[in-house]
Amino acid sequence: MGKHGMTPTVLHVIDTTGPGGAETVFLALAEGCIKQGYRSIALIRGPGWVEQQLKQRSIPYYIRDCKGSLNLRFLFELFSIIRKEKVTHIQSHLLGSNVYTSIMGLFTRLPVTATFHGHVDISPDERFRNAKLALIKMGSKHVVSVTEDLKNTINHTTNSYCRLHPIVIPNGIDLNELEKQPVHGLEKSDKPLILGCLGNIRPAKNYPLAIELVGLLKSKGINVRLRIAGDGTKSGGIELIRKVKELGLQENVEFLGFIDDVPGFFGSIDVFMMTSSSEGHPLALTQALAAAKPILSTRNGVERVVPEHLLFLADEHTAGSLFTALETLQKSTQSTEGSERLVEGRKYVKDNYSEDVMRERYTNLYEIGAA
């Protein structure tokens, strides 16, 4: 219980509306607080996937638009919600929400936990970047980074007056259905080799490289399919579909769009592939390990998130280098040692990256105690 026997109320704030890693963590923490006996209230900026998920989980929420560099009306409405709901703790995600909640932390003295999910949050191109970070430093009780790499970047690119010294809490995933996936290597058969990519189509994912690998495999007479799961409605998706047609790979590449059934997706593929130019700590990486899928990847930062020997890494960001790594992967997974590596990857995720572990780390920061 909180002070004077009052049930703690955690306000969860995020300023994005679509599906993604930060949004998934936002939802997991809001739901987790309720499961632990606290009250959860969510504040979002508009309708969309996040709102739908809040409804499904029966989490009460407010919608308030926060457009603009410093939206004073939003600040007043945020203060009003805090008073009305008797909020005792604030958890925010991403730069914009972290700034607003930290300002509230200064005014109300409520404990604020501000979470950074990616390098875009601290981009040198961000307007008034250092001033915003200084506000967060002054107004938040805890600053969280989801990766060690992001923490180091925050510390190395900021001056002392706005250096945040974040705590690292990795993103956690729901393991229940993923752990039910069978563990088996790649068996030699006439069936097509099915590669899978999971993540919204955007430049950093470098999906054109995945398409190039499919073209290379096809040219070598290999029966291959690539399944891409993620929102492809933006211009990048349209361009990627055009590239597939230009290369005559329509029969080899399938665009699934955004998916809800992540375990089902992993059950439908043989190898999980990441061709990204850069990554923080993508949920898809730990989901693939939990599903005991071999992982083929470029060196994009994920090799600093999980032990390298759990991945099959291309030395260069080229289709040829990915093909070489894929050959190594195929040989490995056909052995007993390869199956043991997949089991080890699943255990590594359970010990370090489960939703339960993540929730416990956050609620320890809130210092609420037993509800």
What are its keywords?
2 domains; 371 residues; Rossmann fold; six-stranded parallel beta sheet; 41% helix; 13 helices; alpha/beta
Describe the protein in words:
The protein has 371 residues and is an alpha/beta fold. The protein has two domains: 3-172 and 355-366, Glycogen Phosphorylase B (Rossmann fold), CATH 3.40.50; 178-352, Glycogen Phosphorylase B (Rossmann fold, 3-Layer(aba) Sandwich), CATH 3.40.50. It is built from 13 helices and 13 strands. The protein has helices at 21-35, 49-56, 72-84, 95-108, 129-139, 148-156, 207-219, 235-246, 262-267, 283-290, 319-333, 336-352, 355-366, and strands spanning 9-14, 39-44, 61-63, 89-93, 112-116, 142-145, 167-168, 193-198, 224-229, 253-257, 271-274, 295-297, 312-313. The strands form two sheets. A seven-stranded parallel β-sheet has the order 3-2-1-4-5-6-7, sandwiched between helices. A six-stranded parallel β-sheet has the order 10-9-8-11-12-13, sandwiched between helices. Helix 7 links the parallel strand 8 and strand 9. Helix 1 (21-35) packs across helix 13 (355-366). The longest helix has 17 residues, at 336-352. The chain is elongated and about 65 Å long. The mean pLDDT is 91.
